[in-house]
Amino acid sequence: MKRKYSLECCVPFFLGFVLFLVGWLIYRVVTVPEKAYGRELIVSVLIILALIGILWSFIRKMTRQNKMLEDTNRKLAELDRMKTEFLANVSHELRTPLTVIMGYSELLEERLAREENKTNVKFVQTIHRKSEDLLNLINDLIDFSRIESGRLELKLSRFKVEEVVNETVEELATSAEKKKHTIQINHRDMPLWLLADRGKIKQIIVNILQNAIKYTPSEGCIIVRTYAQNDRCYIEVEDNGIGISKEQIAQIYQPFKQADSSYNKKYEGFGLGLAITKSLVQSHNGNIRVQSVPGEGSLFIVSLPREKNA
Ligand SMILES: Nc1ncnc2c1ncn2[C@@H]1O[C@H](COP(=O)(O)OP(=O)(O)OP(=O)(O)O)[C@@H](O)[C@H]1O
Ligand SMILES: [Mg+2]
Questions:
Q1: Ligand 1 center from residue 185 Cα (angstroms)
Q2: CA 139 – CA 53 distance, rounded (Å)
């Protein structure tokens, strides 16, 4: 929408033509002064005036169109800001009752565990699990709206990246076990220091590792590597899952985009994980890329500036 009116490119052409005509007229008068120029002069002046008129109407039209574009841009920006604000407010409002539901379902689960009826325990566990999914989604929406409105704040501290990786793998071990995956960890250059927002770096690893677990069929193999190269720290997550096609790779970092977005899609999710991850990586002056072969697996590579003298 920021594109200026395309007739702009005609203006230099018309201006050039008018100047050429004026020049030609002066040249004729100077080189052959004895000739009478009555009719020639009138025709040339009329052409020049006509061209100046066209030029003038072009410029007016351009100015009007540019103003309209500017107005539309302003309105769109305002709508975008309102959408982000709405998203943030709704998410915040939803988070509070959800936390209460989760708290009570946990309490109920503990009480029911002492009773005989295991079906009730299962029901409560499902309530708790689904509330947790919903809370994760709400947190993603809040993060996304923060990033969109440029309100993302980084709390920098110095820490070892391998510690964060180990912590994350440990936390996601249960969901990996459920699918009988094996997760291997390979830290090549220890200790590997970062000056970054620890929570956000963890969120980056969680998102990529969660995807590896989710998009790898049962009994898969996931490898998490960390290493240093020059002044960069690298974090890699490799899986032997379903992989991503070349066309899909172009879309995976876009918000609300999933490779399979059909109504009966196989994998749950909102398509926000990698969009948030990319913004978080970039806010740390980092870079994220992926290599993937459909049906064979994917390798996500995150590089971040490394803290050398820690
Ligand atoms: N390791 C992977 N293997 C195969 N496909 C992947 C992998 N990681 C991401 N993708 C593809 O990229 C898309 C976008 O990923 P993203 O994490 O942003 O969304 P999601 O996992 O679908 O939902 P959310 O993370 O919001 O729960 C996914 O829908 C999936 O198609
Ligand atoms: Mg995801």
A1: 21
A2: 59
